[in-house]
């Protein structure tokens, strides 16, 4: 799978994929990540990628021309999805990551400054995506997160693919608690049920604890799951 990231700060990606599972996937050629400097797709001598917004608003806005040109040159197939990373987008979720992993290429446009010319959102991209209800200085950190999340669904990237299906959000709730050695640490013991050998009891306990953690940390997921099942 190929990821193409369009940015005005390509240096922000230096070394960011140089460790862990993503680096191993790159070395094994399971995924490819290409960083494109938006300024390389400008046509003026100043390589200008932004301008003041019409209407007298604050800040600067990324111009449409270089973005359209970049996508035109980078896109390998007409059906390749293009995503604009901005606070105005749909919230990025597990289902989106799984869907993205079905494509051989995805293009990520990193928003910046006050925003991106709306014609990019209206007439170029497949979808706008936000990684959360907060503001970043730009879409570059969001692009890293999306590459990481989507790569986990590319076959053979994660050694134990069964663990991916069991992660938080895969079943609509958070993951259950995990424990390892030592059995007791500073007076805190691992729950006895995990040593019972009774797999049915263990799964029941894990399900109960997952629901408890979800209810405490993400009650919105419980409400959403209940509405889907009713």
Overall spatial form: elongated
Kindly report the average pLDDT value: 93
Q: In total, how many beta strands?
A: 10
Total number of distinct structural domains: 2
What's the helix count? 8
Q: Which structural class do you get from the secondary structure elements?
A: alpha/beta
CATH superfamily of the largest domain: SPOUT methyltransferase, trefoil knot domain
Write a structural description.
This protein has 230 residues and is an alpha/beta fold. It has 2 domains: 2-151, Alpha/beta knot; 170-229, tRNA(m1g37)methyltransferase, domain 2 (Trp Operon Repressor, Chain A, Orthogonal Bundle), CATH 1.10.1270.20. Helices cover 34% and strands 18% of the residues. It has 8 helices and 10 strands. The strands form 3 sheets. Strands 2-1-6-5-8 form a 5-stranded parallel beta sheet, with helices on both faces. A 3-stranded mixed beta sheet has the order 3-4-7. The chain has a two-stranded antiparallel sheet with strand order 9-10. Strand 1, helix 1 and strand 2 form a beta-alpha-beta unit. Helix 3 crosses helix 5 (140-151) and helix 7 packs across helix 8. The longest helix is centred in the C-terminal third of the chain and has 19 residues, at 199-217. The mean pLDDT is 93.
In short:
With 230 residues, the protein is α/β, with parallel strands linked by helices.
Characteristic terms for this protein:
230 residues; alpha/beta; Alpha/beta knot; Trp Operon Repressor, Chain A; three-stranded mixed sheet; 8 helices; elongated
